Backbone:
């Protein structure tokens, strides 16, 4: 839900001799659903799934029985760019968190974020742990004590193994939420305060990127900050498309973000990932991600107002959580067990993971997210 301007109508009470104007309270911004943003979320999640299923090596090789490079001799080079869906997620997150935190007290902001992330996350940990423990599978499992630590979302700073491979992005999101809550939500969101926050964080991240200090990187996040900040700039554009500071924040962080993405993603982290990428391809996808969110911010995609996009948005988070690790046994069963061709296996696996995400949304998120939000919003006596 987002905030949009609404008109205020004044009223007056007139007496026989004196007219007295009664001021009206400021109009509240009317919530409107940006369904195109929901659709973009799912596109980003599908990009990441394409990368995990066919754009890299590693554990998924066991599921296919050979390298995905052999399974998808043509498309594996395109699938390798799917990892950039994460950067698009971060731009969207900057936009949405700035939007949802505007005018909201700290307790409400915390309750909203925690209730949104935790129920599906906890269930995903249970599902993945149970499936990976099946004796018919040979994938690596996480020790019991470290699995329990994963329920806190603090496994990465504690040095524990991750149950969900994708949860490193959640750790980045949580740090962004903390920075935003302390600097924007706690004192109260204003245009000036958001601009000052972005103006301080941008050079701090740039400097940290050159110092190579892990403790500083953990707070400032030089590899991810340009995308979060760019998303916040685009939300300011959404509020006022003529705001030069908003456009400046967005442009500067697009320029920094494309360089950061090229530096870290033009080649794989380890040789078995095989997926070397073109710098021009990385720049193109980062640019398209910024442009897509900018088009939504400017209202250019208001025509994309189909209800199914809202459903797509609700599926994105649970799909993102489970698609990688639970996709492996599905790929193995379809491709190696039933002999389904590679491309058919790819599509069926995505469909099955989307169906599982729908079940998680209906059985977990719709039931427990409101209850957890109400519990966290309850005043402390």
Residues:
């Amino acid at each position: 839900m987002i905030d949009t301007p609404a008109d205020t109508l004044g009223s007056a009470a007139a007496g026989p001799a004196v007219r007295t104007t009664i001021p009206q309270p400021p109009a509240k911004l009317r919530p409107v659903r940006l369904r195109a943003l929901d659709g973009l979320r799912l596109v980003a999640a599908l990009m990441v799934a394409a990368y995990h299923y066919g754009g890299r090596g590693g554990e998924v090789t066991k599921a296919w029985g050979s390298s995905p490079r052999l399974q998808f001799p043509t498309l594996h080079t395109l699938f390798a760019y799917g990892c950039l869906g994460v950067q698009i997620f971060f731009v969207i997150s900057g936009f949405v968190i700035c939007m949802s935190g505007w005018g909201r007290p700290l307790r409400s902001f915390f309750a909203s974020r925690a209730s949104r992330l935790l129920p599906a996350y906890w269930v995903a940990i249970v599902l993945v742990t149970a499936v990976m423990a099946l004796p018919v599978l040979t994938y690596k499992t996480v020790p019991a004590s470290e699995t329990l630590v994963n329920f806190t979302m603090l496994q990465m700073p504690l040095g524990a193994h991750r149950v969900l491979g994708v949860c490193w992005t959640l750790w980045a999101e949580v740090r962004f939420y903390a920075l935003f809550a302390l600097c924007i939500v706690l004192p109260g969101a204003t245009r000036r305060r958001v601009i000052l926050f972005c103006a301080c964080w941008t050079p701090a991240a740039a400097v940290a990127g050159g110092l190579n200090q892990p403790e500083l990187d953990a707070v400032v996040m030089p590899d991810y900050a340009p995308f979060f900040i760019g998303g916040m700039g685009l939300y300011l554009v959404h509020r006022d498309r003529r705001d030069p500071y908003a456009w400046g924040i967005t442009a500067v962080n697009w320029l920094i973000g494309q360089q950061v993405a090229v530096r870290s993603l033009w080649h794989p982290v380890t040789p078995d990932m095989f997926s070397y990428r073109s710098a021009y391809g990385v720049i193109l996808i980062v640019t398209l991600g910024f442009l897509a969110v900018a088009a939504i911010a400017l209202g250019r995609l208001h025509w994309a107002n189909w209800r199914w996009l809202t459903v797509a948005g609700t599926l994105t988070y649970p799909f993102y959580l489970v698609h990688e690790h639970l996709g492996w046994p599905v790929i193995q069963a379809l491709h190696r067990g039933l002999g389904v061709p590679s491309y058919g296996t790819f599509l069926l696996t995505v469909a099955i993971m989307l169906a599982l995400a729908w079940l998680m949304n209906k059985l977990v998120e719709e039931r427990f997210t409101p209850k957890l939000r109400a519990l966290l919003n309850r005043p402390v006596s």
